Recover the amino acids of this structure.
């Protein structure tokens, strides 16, 4: 069973499509652009998802690394929230990461720096439904 989207993406021009779907992947509208241009059946949730997954898969190592590196670090201090997308701010607030103590923020910064140094990209986890203590 396929699920038809409320507004058919195939009926949108590229600018409209990017306005609706260009933010799905963090700071990486190129994925939506490639999906749009793919000629795939993008008028169902499944088709749009498949086209975007394929765009990432075909993007090559450099673009895939750029996608991962575009993600924000977790537990940023309130003064750093402006650097995050509204979706990331909402997700981190939902997990209570905006309520960290100064000590917890310092620990997040330390852990984020160590992870980034070791792997070359930020630690990424879907925080929706999680809390600070998880």
């Amino acid at each position: 069973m396929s699920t038809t989207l409320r507004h058919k993406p195939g009926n949108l021009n590229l600018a409209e499509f990017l306005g609706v779907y260009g933010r799905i992947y963090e700071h990486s509208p190129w994925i939506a652009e490639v999906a749009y241009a793919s000629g795939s059946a993008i008028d169902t949730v499944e088709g749009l998802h498949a086209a975007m997954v394929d765009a990432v898969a075909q993007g090559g190592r450099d673009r895939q690394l750029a996608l991962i590196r575009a993600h924000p670090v977790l537990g940023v201090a309130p003064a750093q929230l402006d650097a995050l997308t509204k979706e990331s701010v909402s997700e981190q607030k939902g997990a209570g990461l905006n309520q960290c103590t100064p000590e917890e923020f310092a620990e997040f910064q330390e852990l984020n720096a160590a992870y980034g140094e070791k792997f070359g990209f930020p630690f990424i986890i879907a925080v929706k439904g999680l809390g600070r203590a998880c």
